[in-house]
Amino acid sequence: MSNKLILNGVSKSFGTNQVLKDVSLSISAGEVISFIGASGSGKTTLLRCINLLEQIDNGSIHLDDVEITKLGVDANPIRRRIGIVFQSFNLFPHMSVRKNITLALTEVLGKTADEASSIASTLLTRFGLSDKIDSYPDRLSGGQQQRVAIARALALNPEVLLLDEITSALDPELVGEVLDVVRELKGSGITLLLATHEMGFAKEISDRVCFLADGTVAELGSAEQIFTAPTDARTQQFLQRVISAGRLRG
Amino acid sequence: MVFLVPRMPRWDRVKKSFFDWDRLTDSFPHLLRAFVLDIKIFAWTTPAILIVAILIAIARSTRNPALFPVRIFVIAYTDIMRGVPVILWIYLVGFGVPGIGMDRPWNSPLIWGSVALGMTYSAYVAEVFRAGIESVHESQRAAARSLGLSSSQTMRHVILPQAIRRVVPPLMNDMVSLQKDVALVSLIGPIEILRQAGIDKAKFANFTPFIGAALIFLAITIPLTRFTDYLLTRERDRTGASKVR
């Protein structure tokens, strides 16, 4: 399999706080990889760096063997190929669901309003939200908002989708409907990178799992290996805590 | 107040010189006619102020390092415009610019008085817009940029529409204030309502025309404020979650 994304010694600091330390990773096309780790371990920052929302201090990121972190690279065409879904949805509150999805289609891809609108309604139907197309985000439940946000990111037909703790702001009973959408995406050819606290889900859906600790890759392996036979002491400790908190059946 | 004031010893005299019904009806037509000029000045300065103010606010909010000099320029502009009393700008621009030898109609104090008013107000209103732009959460920008929108597309479609909705109340505050400050242009010549009231006051030796002028101002500014409240409520009902009791 070819490498979709390569991270080469990526470092990122906010002030004196170094959040990512020399992170190197290769991710294949169509792979599903989950990033787990304690809060503050750098999961979110890593995803934001890949989407170029944060500028990395050192190292490089390559998409299809082209470096996207080089100085002077236009970020906009790259962001079209790498979608991101945020923990807090970040829908545009002044726009209807339809407009949220079609905005980038018409403004960035230059599609006509009709084309964009039909893409939006196809996606919403697929996610069971066809009746919400003219609603405003504030009128939707968290789970519905997050599914709209996923639809918005998918509308641009990205090759890579970054899911940044997309269920962390949801009520427990709404988590399922969002995870179902992600399950459906797996195998569609899209490369999925998840930062997540849903260990059961990470174990079920991931090809590989990456355990981050203090901004470094502490352990990387198949989902099976990480969750059943972790070798790194920090991974063992982390999973022990997760299991005793009842978030993963051991 | 309503109870005590009429019991003051000289109330009768005040009542006669400020609340004379006949004088009011005499001067009212003059005042209304003069008020048309106020409305005209207001009507042509308002759009100019809003456009200039939004441009200033955007220039100040830009993060492009190449536009640093523009940012410095607009910061200086707002500081200078806000730092000097409006009336002084009206004198300086209204008398000064026509004085450099422009031909009619470009030497009219009316035009340059309005320009001075527009210049100062655009600086105030720009700050209101800027506060609105900065109040839109960074995550909105992140969401827009992550979809591949450029920074100007993000500003136009995502940031500004939300910013403007949020600043409508303080914006209306400035517009009501402008509606009244239009009267200051009269100080360099044009006969608008306040000056007309002054003329009638002198003619009748009675202050009632000023009361008439005040009533006319209120008749415009109060509905304007109520209308804005209505628009805001409607917008909230359309997009917002249900209200908390």
For the structure shown, list the relevant keywords:
heterodimer, A: 250 residues, alpha/beta, Rossmann fold, 6-stranded mixed beta sheet, 4-stranded antiparallel beta sheet, 9 helices, 10 strands, B: 245 residues, mainly alpha, MetI-like fold, 78% helix, 0% strand, globular
Summarize the amount of helix of chain A as a percent range.
Answer: 25-40%
* Residue-averaged pLDDT of chain A: 92
CATH homologous superfamily identity of chain B:
MetI-like
- Which secondary-structure class do the elements of chain B indicate? mainly alpha
Strand content of chain A: 25-35%
Strand content of chain B: under 5%
General shape of chain A: globular
Q: In CATH terms, what is the fold-level topology of chain A?
A: Rossmann fold
Mean of residue pLDDT values of chain B:
87
Total count of strands of chain A: 10
Indicate the structural class of chain A.
Answer: alpha/beta
CATH architecture of chain A: 3-Layer(aba) Sandwich
**Helicity range of chain B:** over 70%
Order of helices and strands of chain B: HHHHHHHHH
Domain module count of chain B:
1
Low-confidence parts of chain A, pLDDT < 50 over ≥5 residues? Answer: none
Distance between the termini of chain A: 32 Å
Model description:
The complex is a heterodimer of chains A (250) and B (245). Chain A has nine helices and ten strands. With 250 residues, chain A is an alpha/beta fold. The longest helix of chain A is centred in the middle third of the chain and has 14 residues, at 113-126. Chain B is mostly helical and 245 residues long. Chain B has one domain: MetI-like fold (Orthogonal Bundle). Chain B is 78% helix and 0% strand. Chain B is built from nine helices and no strands. In chain B, helix 2 packs across helix 5 and helix 2 runs antiparallel to helix 7. The model of chain B has no long low-confidence stretch (mean pLDDT 87). Chain A binds chain B through residues 48, 51, 53, 75-77, 79-80, 83-84, 86, 88, 90-94, 103-104, 107-108, 136, 138-139, 152-153, 156, and chain B through 139-140, 142-150, 153, 157-158, 161-162, 165, 238-241.
